[in-house]
Write a structure and sequence with these properties.
One of its GO terms (biological process) is chorismate metabolic process. Helix content is 76%, strand content 4%. It is mostly helical and 92 residues long. The protein folds into two domains: 56 residues; 34 residues, no CATH class.
Length: 92
């Protein structure tokens, strides 16, 4: 059982999946996530400029709570931590 969880690159896990191939797919997904976060950060900075240009707040706690909840519902506490990290990245 432990051997099937710790496979070497090129080996297959239960079901015949190549571990190296699966890791490459994960790497591709990770890069897509990074690209999406960069895009989100750019858009967030545009959104933040608008209220501050007219004297409003840069951060809206109600909106941030909604974002946190959107991540908390599917992923629990880890989702809340992820949302907090994403908000920090996008605060600019």
């Amino acid at each position: 059982m432990i051997r099937s969880l710790i496979s070497m690159p090129g080996e297959t896990v239960d079901g015949g999946f190549d571990v190296l191939q699966l890791r490459r797919r994960i790497d591709g997904i990770d890069q897509s996530i990074i690209d999406l976060i960069r895009t989100c950060k750019e858009i967030s900075r545009q959104v933040q400029r608008t209220p501050t240009d007219v004297g409003g707040p840069r951060v809206e706690p109600v909106r941030e709570a909604e974002i946190t909840n959107n991540y908390h519902v599917p992923f629990g506490d880890a989702g809340s931590a992820l949302a907090a990290a994403l908000l920090r990245i996008c605060w600019g």
